Amino acid sequence: MPENREADRAAEKERRTREKEEVNRLFREYAKTKDIAIRNKLIEDHLYIAEILAKKYINKGIEYDDLFQVASIGLILAVDRFDIEKGFEFSSYATPTIIGEIKKHFRDKGWVIRVPRRIQEMSKRVNNARVSLAQELQRVPTITDIADYLDTTEEEVLEVIEASKVYSPQSLDAQLGTQNDDTDVTISDLIGEEEAYFTKIETVDFIQKGMESLNEMEKLILKHRYFEKKTQVSIAKELNISQMTVSRIEKKIMEKFRRELELTEANPSE
Amino acid sequence: MNLTIQKHYDTETGAWRVTAKGDLDIFSSNVFRDEMLAAWSDEKSDIYIDGADLAYIDSTGLGAFISLYNKMKQDGNEIYLENLKPNIQKLFVITDLDEVFHIGAQQ
Amino acid sequence: MNHTVHLRIPAEPMYISVVRLTASSLASSLGFDIEEVEDIRVCVSEACNNVMDRLEDISLRFGVEENALTIDVDGFSSPSSEQGKLGYLIMSSLMDVVQETEQGIHMIKAKE
Q1: Class for domain A1-114, per CATH?
Q2: Which of A92, A115, A207, B8 lies most in the core, judged by the most C-beta atoms within 10 Å?
Q3: Which CATH architecture does the domain made up of B3-103 adopt?
Q4: Does residue C45 belong to the interface with chain A, where contact is any CB pair within 8 Å?
């Protein structure tokens, strides 16, 4: 019966208007009294916005719980700063505020949010290829395998892997299975191990000391590999040496750091 | 119609070459699907679509491709989409359809 | 003060392009970049696609907020078809906030 539907719709509209008025009233009162109870009610009622937005930023290197917490902080900021007299809607106001906080969080952690689309898409394809090929070949696929499978160049595959590593929290030594891959101890392992003994300053000190014993080539490779996160292949190309050589030099660097560590342990009063 | 379709069957490579210009939306998607289906029924082969001038697509356009592909795959034929604009390619990625269709050389 | 742009079209596919045109014109003038304008165009169309077969008219409202654009489409209902779900997935991915209300759908795109 059309009349009932009309009545229903009118009732709905009434309810919605009343809801909006209630929210506006609460904001006005909060502005006047700064009553925590009202603030909490406003936050609670709009927590769904923080949830929705936090979900949009998962799989970019930061855990959901972390994201939700940051989003909630953004929401609280928005509740505190919202000026009802301006005549805008709160949810529309809160959204850019919360997004701003989330993005700031990514920046603070050193990650870049705007992963270039090309990288995102390729990254997806590389990962899928990795899985398919692993099944097909019954071994860890190499860069070459993946490049062939995706009908692209090794360069492209490497670039994408490296780039996507930058956008996610990986340890310094995260590797795709390359043909020359081995599971040697790396700098990060050493540092991680000793975190219990060293403070951050001491770690930097340790690295600097360790670097003193490196020759120019080794320093260069350390810089490229761990601070610029380049692959062995690209470093090899750049320095015009073989990947094997890069790998061997890396091992030497590890040795030198290991020795440095032993020295530091033997003489703790540094 | 806000969509222009040009197609010809390439006998040398044994595939359909299609150019779609304009918007693939709720207004044009069904016609597009039906026209492609008719063509493919005539000559069953892979279909290559040049999207250089494809200005717009949404779920209705994607749905058209899906319907088309569902018929084609029974005969082992594939759909290749080339020269898609970045925003359009993005939609295929979001919906995981980039794993169903072959998406090639981007603009 | 926020402004609202009302748009009402007959629920016929041929008028969807009018909605897109209005949406992109508005979004552009509000300072959204090219990609965002494209996203908004797609989402507003998707919302209309959802409503198309069920109503005679499609009513939309564009809300011009301080740092965001909101889009409300009346009559939107949770999709049940595969294609409808695809549309909803696209909307949720491209817009910042997508919320089903009793009236229809409410979407927010923040200006960044």
Answers
A1: mainly alpha
A2: A92
A3: 2-Layer Sandwich (3.30)
A4: no
